[in-house]
């Protein structure tokens, strides 16, 4: 067994290691460092306007000539329910008052922003685009593929993996339940829950059902997780939390410290921050907001309603009122540079493969 | 890397493969077949009286001269709340009426039964005892160890693993969230939940914190899962669901069929059947009983209250009113004999190790 795979060939990278998008915490420096170290850096453009994305791409292109990717959030068809927004704004009032911030104006033009970022990705000749929260329509995928832009989907279940393959994706990220941040799910289980399948179960069951290469994600922090994933049949890995605490990450010191002082039992999956389920370190905001669970508007509304609260709380050093996305392996988090992390990862993986 | 490890030496077995106890579904034939195939068969004695356990041990000893183990449920200090039992009996009345069964008499002598089974294990010279739901008191562990009986604890978190090591356990089963059946947990997370850490995250974080050998459990069904677990640092694996659908298993055809027709998204963790969280295939009983969640008595009471209902429903072919424990990898379930399963497992593992 070796590290090169269909994933390294497809993406034209040396090692099958993808840095997860991590919208809000990725910097051009992190993206470029990962790519320059032989992996695939990813611009987490989930929340970006086309203008912001253009700036980030330009910056990354100045720092690396190697392949990188852009991760986009696929818009959903959820309805905008004004009453929920009204209720939620009432529940959020004490936080806004304490932090001295105003009620935001809600922007529901998610689809237009997505179309604009697709245009930008094509205009700038981005080599790889990955998608979270679903599969874009066929005309978008065709446009990307015509420009030889590689497309990667996200799946949290076998059903989602098959849907991604059928749509023409070049590869799939199999996101196990251990993963930090947003669940990439776009289907529900028989009990109307978001699928939370452990990486050990998810990867082989997906690999058995699709022909395109699978990239494992969820709980992977070092060479052990990398080689274990490849033994399960994955041809690459994606890591988020491992890169989030790296020097080049844009996460605040508060956020990095929270991960480094957490235990594997400290995270929960919650929709209170953005309206979509995501795994993060449990805190007061989650506990309080869980009481109003029926009033939580869907993504992207709840994200917009809580965004300024979270930013200001983090700025003031209040870890109890901000999101602290983390996977289930925080004890394995390191604080080195991303290049050192990449070097160690490859070295440990090679040792395990050759023992 | 090779299959022999501290676990094979400790347990005096050829391959580091443990068949999980699976109380209620294990047969002496299954236990003996696994042991005769080079693994460690386990008598799932969680619900057994000492008399029943004696019979099972005698039967297993007739079928194999090789090491086997007994799995016991450690009693907890939960209070018996008569009001909850009264309420639950009211909710269960329609099921009992439909199935024509009586209300059971509740037996709260869990501790005496546990002490009696410990005596029996010592009397019969059982080679290995594993524990679920906690750590027995020091005098019990000392008595077992004085007879050179190997003791294995179960951990669903790093904290539980450290507690097991401190208590003097010879090895630990690290039970990932993918695992079917009862969660072995005996602590709660910061949000008062049962720990549900994916195997990919749990194993390396436990391995880094203890010195005794770790056996991985949760989502492992074949050579891929076995070798991946060992790459993560485990020195053995425990499998339940994989053996549950084998020919020698005592699970009903209804139960086996349910697993073989399930998807990875079909299971949930629920306490409605026994009063302790356990992973099984979602069905009507779980949905209905979730409505009365505050009235569910703790284990072992709820187990006793629903036991006859589940047995009779299964006998009548009603999969909606019985427990169908399963891990998150039902798509990988096979229906061969346990010896064929063991052969295939070892062959695939050796192939992966030598590629």
Automatic annotation (TrEMBL), chains A, B:
SUPFAM superfamilies: Inosine monophosphate dehydrogenase (IMPDH). Keywords: Detoxification, Flavoprotein, FMN, Monooxygenase, Nucleotide-binding, Oxidoreductase. Pfam families: NMO. GO terms for biological process: response to toxic substance. One of its GO terms (molecular function) is nucleotide binding. InterPro entries: Aldolase_TIM (IPR013785), NMO (IPR004136). It catalyses: 3 propionate 3-nitronate + 3 O2 + H2O = 3 3-oxopropanoate + 2 nitrate + nitrite + H2O2 + 3 H(+). Its cofactor is FMN. Belongs to the nitronate monooxygenase family. NMO class I subfamily. Nitronate monooxygenase that uses molecular oxygen to catalyze the oxidative denitrification of alkyl nitronates. Acts on propionate 3-nitronate (P3N), the presumed physiological substrate. Probably functions in the detoxification of P3N, a metabolic poison produced by plants and fungi as a defense mechanism. This is Probable nitronate monooxygenase. It comes from Staphylococcus shinii.
